[in-house]
Specification:
The chain has 213 residues and is mainly β. The protein is 10% helix and 38% strand. It contains four helices and twelve strands, in the order βββαβαββββαββββα. The protein has helices at 40-43, 62-69, 123-127, 208-212, and strands at 3-15, 21-29, 32-38, 47-52, 80-85, 97-98, 108-114, 119-121, 164-166, 170-182, 187-191, 201-206. The strands form three sheets. Strands 1-2-11-10-7-12 form a six-stranded antiparallel barrel. A four-stranded antiparallel β-sheet has the order 5-4-3-6. It is globular and about 70 Å long. The protein starts with a strand and ends with a helix.
Length: 213
């Protein structure tokens, strides 16, 4: 399975071949160095461990430095390490650098990121509740209302939608089409939006459901 680590640059729009405007997300995809390769025989599963970004040695633990040294990385060390699962053992060797040209136009990707953190929010913003009436001295316009049961089970049911921490969750958007690949700049344009803020880390994988079809 093809995969890369990237960074969200922003959103823009481009024109397709028919002259129609297409909203796209600009993603810096790679370059990613293959730090380690996992095999079924040795590790029990197949995967590639990729490194993205760059950090100076003083900002990286000795354990990570020694781990990356096996792949020939000895000066600038990856800022992000992630594994991309593979359907079978890969013949890619540690130290190989993967770039945006791993993908091509009209490929479909599953993109994983971390959503923007919204802090502690009430039920109106977090779950879209309508709230109470504003007339007649409306004293509970943004309150959730009753949350429990009096007779049975006599407690708050697990999973009840209530105020709480919103955002900062890992999310995956499936089947996003690659509109354009700019290999020289390691940039991919993907149709639609992806989770997370500008500058957020993204994991790009070949779409599983599209591949299954």
């Amino acid at each position: 399975m093809k995969g890369l680590i990237g960074k969200k640059v922003g959103m823009t729009q481009v024109y397709d071949e028919s002259g129609k405007v297409v909203p796209v997300t600009v993603i810096q995809a790679g370059p990613c160095v293959v730090v380690a390769v996992k095999t079924r025989e040795r590790d029990g599963y197949s995967a590639m461990q990729l490194g993205f970004g760059a950090r100076k040695a003083k900002n990286v633990s000795k354990a990570i430095q020694g781990h990356c040294a096996k792949a020939g990385v000895k000066e600038l060390f990856p800022a992000v390490l992630r594994e991309i699962r593979q359907a079978a053992d890969t013949d890619v060797a540690p130290g190989t650098v993967l770039k945006a040209d791993v993908f091509a136009a009209d490929d479909y990707l599953d993109i994983t990121g971390t959503t923007k953190g919204r802090g502690f929010q009430g039920v109106v913003k977090r779950h879209g509740f309508g709230g109470g009436r504003a007339s007649h001295g409306g004293a509970w316009t943004r309150r959730p209302g009753s949350i429990g049961c009096r007779e049975w089970p006599g407690n708050v049911i697990k999973g009840k939608r209530m105020p709480g921490h919103m955002g900062n969750d890992r999310r995956t958007v499936q089947n996003l089409q690659v509109v354009r690949v700019m290999a020289d700049d390691d940039v991919i344009l993907v149709r639609g939006a992806v989770p997370g803020p500008v500058g957020g880390t993204l994991i790009l994988r070949e779409a599983i459901k599209r591949r299954a079809k």
